[in-house]
């Protein structure tokens, strides 16, 4: 019966906070901005207040998924639950499993539970990159790669090293179109005027 927690973790990750927030404001986030149901698109379309609310929601669902499966099954359970939450967010079952969010905010919640010291470093580098470049996508990838490298430097358990590598691969792959836009100079910069 405890294995049902992995199903719970997946559906926790699938809670579409950005979509709900958008609907409350008369916007379908799937049809505007980047079309993603993630935190960045929420900031872009709905403004800072709603964006922060979505960020908290997306991070909490990742944290809860990792925490409940960690309590039940230990480190390997925690990473399995966390990855399932990221999968639920990134390929949402409520929207036909089409690529949706990119899993960064959910990943933040997961590492905050499993690897709090590494979380501080990853968040710091994310903020630094975004402040310098104003590219959230670039900051997200740098943060993900920071986690992937740091888990080896500080000799985290094998389960967390595995998570770091898999999560980084997912985040980098999900941001490939962002890098194409960065190279073309068409990528949206954080702080640009909100899309109406």
Set down the secondary structure blueprint.
Elements: H1 4-13, H2 17-24, H3 39-46, H4 48-73, H5 75-90, H6 104-114, H7 116-133, H8 136-153, H9 158-174, H10 176-184
Structure summary:
The chain is mostly helical and 196 residues long.
Rg over CA atoms, rounded to whole Å, is: 16 Å
Ranges where pLDDT stays below 50 over 5 or more residues in a row are none
Determine the fraction of residues in helical runs and give it as a percent range: over 70%
The run of helices and strands is HHHHHHHHHH
Separation of the first and last Cα atoms? 47 Å
Query: How would a crystallographer describe the biggest sheet?
Result: none
Categorize the overall geometry. Answer: globular
Mean pLDDT: 91
What class, by secondary structure content?
Answer: mainly alpha
Q: How many domains would you count in the coordinates?
A: 1
Number of helices: 10
**Percentage of residues in DSSP E strands:** under 5%
Number of strands: 0
Detailed description of the structure:
This protein is mostly helical and 196 residues long. It has one domain. Helix content is 72%, strand content 0%. It has ten helices and no strands. The mean pLDDT is 91.
Pick out its properties.
single chain, 196 residues, mainly alpha
């Amino acid at each position: 019966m405890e294995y049902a927690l992995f199903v719970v973790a997946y559906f926790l990750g699938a809670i579409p906070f950005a979509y709900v927030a958008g609907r409350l404001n008369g916007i379908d986030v799937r049809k505007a901005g980047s079309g993603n149901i993630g935190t960045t698109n929420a900031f872009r379309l709905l403004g800072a207040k709603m964006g922060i609310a979505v960020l908290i929601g997306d991070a909490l669902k990742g944290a809860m998924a990792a925490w409940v499966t960690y309590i039940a099954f230990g480190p390997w359970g925690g990473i399995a639950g966390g990855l399932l939450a990221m999968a639920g967010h990134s390929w949402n079952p409520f929207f036909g499993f089409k690529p949706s969010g990119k899993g960064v905010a959910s990943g933040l919640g997961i590492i905050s539970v499993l690897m709090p010291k590494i979380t501080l470093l990853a968040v710091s580098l994310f903020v630094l990159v975004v402040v310098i470049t104003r590219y959230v996508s670039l900051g997200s990838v740098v943060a993900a790669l920071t986690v992937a490298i740091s888990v080896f430097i500080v000799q985290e358990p094998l389960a967390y090293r595995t998570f770091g590598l898999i999560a980084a691969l997912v985040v980098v792959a999900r941001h490939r179109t962002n890098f194409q836009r960065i190279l073309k100079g068409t990528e949206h910069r954080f702080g640009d005027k909100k899309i109406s």
